[in-house]
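A further point concerns the way the authors explain their paired sequence and structure data. Showing the layout once, in full, would remove most of the difficulty. For illustration, here is how one protein appears when written out as sequence plus structure tokens:
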Amino acid sequence: MGTIFETLKSIGVASDDTKSLFASRTRDNADIQVWQDSQSQVIYIDGFYVGEKEYETGEYREQEIRGQHAELSGGDYESVADAARRLSDYQQFYVGKDICDVGCGDGAFLKGAQKLASRVSGVELQDAYLTQLQDKGIECEQSILNYQTSFQTVFMFHSLEHFEDPLQILQNIRLKMTRDQSTLIIEVPHANDFLISTLKCEEFVEFTLWSQHLILHTRESLKRLLNKAGFSNVIVEGKQRYGISNHLTWLNEKRGGGHKSPLSSFETENLKLAYEGALQKIDATDTLVAIAEI
């Protein structure tokens, strides 16, 4: 198993000569250094992994899980909004198909896709979520390799950046994908996020740098990683999860949450699309989406 730096080096987006210190700590750990490659602009943490036990217990999650068999709540706003967007954006990839969501969390996306997909399955380390989804009739395992069948579409929504060996994870996923018109869809945080690369909002940078986010990708690094894992026909595009009201709140109040404050009421659908389009034009969205085939 290689380190994050070795993985990035193997795909040509990091080197000893271009390695520079981006931050001397993360928001939750004063002993972790964060690096950036001065040429590729990839931001990464090397030589640290929180460990699977942390994910299994769910202690890292901001929301409280009240007991191993507690009922899932209706979900937080971000989870609900993300699931609704994904169900709309990726409908052609789950309708009538056998799908798997790797890092499925509370299963919001799988629950929404269940009525139209042929079969839905999840991969989740957190014990409470895994048990609750199984109790609700949704197949869920701690590793995609535990499944005996393969999938037509695999989704990874903001989970790839958590793995200490992302290349191996992608290769394992590839083993569990069918050979006929199978698709992998990934969402990851973007190193060129407008608040990081252009506005250089220190409070947002401090919030974003988290010990569990081991890589903030660029378009090129994400595409190269997928190619290295054996995927082809890779398309990478920008997606903006948080609108201008959130950005204004970061700049004015030095905190997030503007997207669910009274300020967000002025954001019409046209404004949201226009702002996302403007950020896509300068490659500064907060999220990258990759769609790939085998």
Remarks:
- The two ends are 23 Å apart (CA to CA).
- The mean pLDDT is 92.
- The longest strand covers residues 232-239.
